[in-house]
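BUG: 3D viewer hangs when loading the predicted structure for this chain

Environment: internal workstation, default settings.
Expected: structure renders.
Actual: progress bar stalls at 90%.

Input used:
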Amino acid sequence: MLQEDNTDLINCENIVLINCVGSRNSEHPYCSKVCCNQSVQLALKVKEINPQANVFVLYRDMRTYGFTEDNYLKARKKGINFIRYDLDFKPEVSQTGDGLKVRVWDEILQKYLLIPADLVGLGVATVANSDNEKLAKLLKVPLNQDGFFLEAHMKLRPVDFSTDGIFVCGLAHGPKPIVEAIVQGKAAAGRACTILNKEKNSGRRSNSRS
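Structure tokens produced before the viewer hung:
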């Protein structure tokens, strides 16, 4: 909507963005790592298009780490509303004759808020590809408990598998923002080049001399 047509956003009065939908729970206990920053950036973009709009970001923990914290501070100054909710009191979205309604427990005010919403955006969980198990068996590489590919060693071999010549990066390894995926992709390419640049496998004995 932000890229194609801004007409709907210009006419919106209340926009609600809900983070951690389907993540950080018993089914998917991990953080998707992109929802917080994306929600803040979307909220800022909405405010840029429609300064009069009321934008609400419902979150469990605001994880705009590193330089992305600047976006969070900017959003607070722009008047974007941040409401923290607990897992035991998850936001409820309902469809009524008057449109969408979002009901959320405000921990600071200690009461429920009922927000009439023109638009509701969900920051959903990043889940492992359903084909990962089949591919893991084919390549003889391990998966972690969440279904993502598991590296040989978190610190010593972060993009290598225990199976030589196979490397991992990006969302195959786990949820991460695009910047981290690019860095990890370059690391995997660099590790592959260390093998491709060799004239022969150093692990095998040979009588030939260089």
